[in-house]
Predict the 3D structure of the following.
Amino acid sequence: MQRKLVQMGQHTLMAAIPSKWVQRHNLKKGDFIEFNEVENKLVATSTAEIFERKTEVTVLSPTIEVIWRIIQPAYTSGYDELIIHYHDKRALPLIERSIKDLIGFEIVEVTPTLVKVKSISKQLDEEFPVILRRTFLVLQQMTEVMAEILGKKQRTRLEEIKSLEITINRYTMFLKRIINRTGYKYPHYTYLLVTFLELAANHIEYLRRYLASSKRGIEPEILKEWKKLVDLNRQVYDLYYNYSAEKFVWIAEAQPHFKWFEKIKDPTIKFNFKAMAEYLVQMARQIVALYT
């Protein structure tokens, strides 16, 4: 939408703030808004409590695959109240199970045909950096645990990876919710960073599933190649928290998703190694964009 600038005094230009945005953020006279320059954009951010948003969804199949994929988008979109309609009683325990994985969401009402869920957390911007760092650290822990599993051939520890991946899913959904709800700074690049972080963790989980179901022995070369990913993950973490352009040069020139892992014979393992490397490189690219 466009707004016409109006001259106010000798040095001041003014424009009206869209009424829908004012209503959504429950703004009134005397409230403050923050402006940030992003390239050719001027981004306005409300410091007031966001007006409560509500939505409703209907569960058409009593399966976790359908239920989870209906509830999760409403959560990450930033709604404060969600009413879930269902017609099959088998859906109820799956709805309850799904809500437990959503940080800040609680069931407040249950009837034979609906479940009402409300947010109990205001999800302020200050929570974002704390949860993001935790997510980075959990991903690092996943890579280190997998290195120990591969090195000592401890398949009995594979369930540890599953638990850590569930934690990352919870954290990344919460981060996406904050971005969509508050318009966290540089939302496009930050959202992609969080998404690629989640996808990198997914491929460790896919590798876990494969190793758990496969009776093949673990190639000696695999641990050596995996340690490259452990190091790459640490490099990306360091790039975000101690940024310098020189640190990105190594990641960019290494091209791990193209040049690494050619010695691995198992096609499934090789695919997941390369896919994880791809997402780590994509994370690095978003970090460069954030600091540019």
About this structure: Residues 268 and 279 are 17 Å apart (CA to CA). Strands lie at 6-8, 12-14, 33-38, 41-46, 54-58, 81-85, 105-110, 114-119. The chain has a mean pLDDT of 88. Residues 187-213 form the longest helix (27 residues).
